Amino acid sequence: MDLPFNKPYMTGKELSYIADAHFNGQLAGDGPYTRRCHQWIEEQSLCEKALLTHSCTAALEMAALLLNLEPGDEVIMPSYTFVSTANAFALRKAVPVFVDIRLDTLNIDEQKIEAAITEKTKAIVPVHYAGVGCEMDTIMSTAERLGIKVVEDAAQGVLSSYKGRALGSIGHLGAYSFHETKNIISGEGGALLINHPDLCERGEIIREKGTDRSRFFRGLVDKYTWQEIGSSFLPGELTSAFLWAQLEEAREITLARLQIWDIYHRLIEGLEREGYLRRPVVPDECEHNAHMYYVVLSDGIDRSRVLSELRSAGVGAVFHYVPLHSSPVGTRYGKSKDDLEISNFVSEQLIRLPFWVGMTLEEQMFVVDELGKALSQG
Question: Rounded to an integer, what distance in angstroms lies between the CA atom of residue 196 and that of residue 244?
């Protein structure tokens, strides 16, 4: 077999909706398909306002602007995350402060956040790894007690929840990704979730190049003009049309992924019992979306060798993040509270397995069989 890491899923309606948007004659942003996507996100998350963006990176950059960050302000986040989490705030010349992760969920360790807080701390950015929620009660309690904003990086968390609340809707702001590697896709794309009513109008302004154009289209002003610093964060209507086809079947897509995830979890149980690896952990209070299936190899197992043998067998398994605190830019612009031992370990031992809607039991069994062979040969 030759199994890639990912195969983007198509519902079959994407191209017809794109053609319809073209026929309607509106290709720029905020047309009918964008409005449908906004409504879907608002209804499923119960956020105050959803705003589509051209990427999750853009949504995080909007969040940084909404927080009025100034040079030298500090933003606490995990080191084990994608670069966009830090980039968005570093662009405003804020300082990313990297905190270690938990070994079970690989989410930011909520017990280590308060020790990293200083008088310069303006925000906490929990990242919901693999669509499994962070311990948000503790994070929100700490933030509210100290007057700090919370921005949820829920790039991987569409249709995941924590204690019944949608990820992205718990903090003051949240961000989704619709990149082609995510569960629900539009090629590139994202959304900002605004959960504080006082930020809604400014969010619209920042997204529309810093103008009150959205208020103009609603008939609230007779002309629009430059109100504050912003950028062109909205996607084109063709992207929204593609996304709408996905959102219509988002729950069916999620259920299909959960079935694949559950099969992996059962097939790999034996390798965990034998001490080769650890499977993912999903706390009882979290409902996840099966964004990925990963394993963390036991200490002493050479991940590079295992990945090489898997690739030779036709299995497109991959590693994930290089911790930001050890990256060239992270060492230049960020700082760390401690040695981030777990982040370092996980970054060297984690493997993500091939995963896509439509993957067969035979393909999954082949992946796990080859993984077992590679581990036993070590």
Answer: 25
